């Protein structure tokens, strides 16, 4: 086990993540997004911020600017770490086409929102296209779900009765004082006609259930749309490709690491960060030591030093215990440095792409050594081995 | 490093019991998140069924050959039209689902318990699938070519799902067949459980568990942690939602699952039940069903007034139990000018209409009438005339006990965690008596999962005795117990109620009839229950309950939810009964719902009253109802 290390300040978390770019469809054009030094920019939209403001005011939106905005909105979102890749071998299959299908293509259409007051599903979207149309659909319902039909019919009868009473001059209980009309919500919202405000002598009718039900339904609809939109945004970002997935994950980890914008709130996010570390260290530990990924106990290292590593047990019972800082995800793991030349890299001490100086542990229990590494051909190569720090 | 040091909130797999004490939310959240990580790794190691790849079942490869190439071609050419075509293709996707379902069912029926001759058995399945899917594929290509890409995308996840199902069919088919053998299964289950447990670590899922099953398992654990007070429901759900999203991003589940989860949001958790009043007035009036009805011997049981309206529960039986019901309107007696009428002491009149009805395979029918509008505050009685000129039945709705007087509050009961374990035992008891397929049966792996999770986060202690009782019950039923469950507690003494149920489980001496069983229960956890009818026969009884503020669950996630209530009953002859939910019905925009509970063993033939208890998180409430039996018999 090893712990403390002091020295010069670490390089920025993005120092070993070279610039990356992606081509995206933007209206009728193909545009480029560029990620560099921890920021995503839309190179074909020099005034992206201005466009964002205009879009917020109801102006035209562009896909590029949307993506940049979504990226910024997700820069500290821990859901990114829950969904994003755990290792280079962990392939996400999200593509721009699949995102389009998810957000527009029909699954939402397949689950249409309905304000139906009945305890039934909405009319199936294919009902209108059946041979015989709604008549056949109705017959199917009667055959397979007579309860539903009965209930619908009964409610419509009640509606008609209520309307008759309303048309006849108001409350059926004129002069009886406070009247409870608890079924007002159901009756009034039956889709046989437009909903009317309650007026005149019906002012005592209790419309609370109806209104609260409608408001609640609208709220749920809004929540659904927001949730679907948020997921679509995340998938759109992930669809930019593996390089961007790693960079987005690193961005989020950096936000919660020392010096990050959310570092002060890390306690509340500790479970999510521990899981994010565990999910990414476990495959690395397997590659490094052959330890079963389920036997990697990970915790979040706080304070000075790079953290701790220890191994217990032997053979299949071997267990790795590790404490690493959240910043490890941003500066080491995202850069693909986790296992380099048979070492577990635990910190980056100096970086000037494509060269870096790292602290690496050759085996659990050993002190870390300094390695100078270089990115060559998509992997890291040791160019100089040094002594311990 | 020792767990708990240096900010560690818990190990990926607990190596031993956590220290007793109040649940630590951070520990529970960390535990659940680490389980999610483990699940993601497990799924990543599964073969990915892909219709376009070798290794896929032949029928699905055949379908893929038909659908995918033109689909991909069309996608390149006609992508702008694809979105529009999505709706048009929905029936086809549903066709595919329907086509695959009988395929899976058929395989489930035909596969023998042992999969030794699986190849030979799968052959007809293969041919059937090919016959089923190829015309569909042809239809896709020929009739709706412009939308073939959409079809491909729709069929793709369906095929994957089918692939997962087919891969696990040998196991599930054998399992179903064994379950049907009822008690004979137990010896077999013990052997197979022992074999499985020999290679599985505590909390480790079966190797062939699909990603969908894995998500359900994790959601069940998440909800159990919530119920035990170790984690908030919102956090628990968001963690499992994150797993679903991660799996969808890797095409391990289809994104339809995400939409179904969004759908679940449409059904908000019910608000606390309104203060009242709540009234339960016994009726017990017979109604002639009419010649054009499926029903005979309709009897109105109880009038219930609640904040969302007034209803009358009814019971009856199908005329001819040998035939399938014709679904003629059973309520014809209430249609037209000869239908019932209701008036009150103030001269107000009300409309009565049929709300819903349902029947079971044994010809028992139950239904609900609704009275509109609700009687005004202060009304003392209602007169219910079943037909013009018939003498009205006066229903007293202002008598003591109508909800205007405070009911005794619930008494303290066991912890939520204890109740969860008890609910498992109750289901086990019921399964041992009925062999119902809808019950978990002798598979204790789910509760073992929950116990493992509770132990890991330090929330098991209040339920340890309940685990001991469950172990004793499992032993008495001859069931195999997963090691994780066995290690959690020493066997305990079986509660008298459970012993009584076991002692009487073979009885078939219950009285036949219905009775209003009208009673209002005090509020429990923001929920109000009103008992509104009881039907008894030789083998069981059914209790009808109206509910307000019910924390119902969307069906798509219901199978992962831990039941919030535990019901039991004891008649005045000392016979204990367990009560489990037979059906639940609620209106999406109403506050009220309706439960049907099944009570087993049957009531004592000489019982004259029944004491019914429901236990929830904040305590338990008990009420006693008289048993005045009436037809239908």
General description of the model:
Chain A is α+β, with helices and mostly antiparallel strands and 389 residues long. Chain A has three domains: 20-98 and 227-256, no CATH class; 127-212, no CATH class; 265-385, no CATH class. Chain A is 40% helix and 18% strand. Chain A has helices at 48-56, 63-73, 78-83, 96-103, 107-110, 133-144, 146-167, 184-188, 208-238, 242-256, 266-289, 327-333, and strands at 20-26, 29-36, 39-42, 296-300, 308-312, 319-324, 339-340, 343-352, 355-361, 369-376, 379-385. Chain A has a five-stranded antiparallel beta sheet. Chain A is globular, with a radius of gyration of 30 Å. The two termini of chain A are 15 Å apart. Chain B is α+β, with helices and mostly antiparallel strands and 633 residues long. Chain B is built from 14 helices and 16 strands. Chain B has helices spanning 25-45, 58-110, 118-143, 148-180, 185-199, 211-227, 233-249, 256-265, 416-434, 445-456, 464-476, 483-486, 496-503, 555-558; strands at 279-287, 295-306, 309-318, 341-344, 349-359, 364-372, 381-385, 393-396, 513-520, 528-536, 541-548, 566-571, 576-586, 592-600, 609-616, 619-626. In chain B, α1 packs antiparallel against α6 (211-227) and α6 (211-227) packs across α10 (445-456). The longest helix of chain B has 53 residues, at 58-110. Chain B is globular and about 75 Å long. Chain B starts with 24 loop residues before the first helix and ends in a 7-residue tail after the last strand. The relative contact order of chain B is 0.11. Classes of the chains: A alpha+beta (389), B alpha+beta (633). The interface between A and B is large, with 94 and 85 residues.
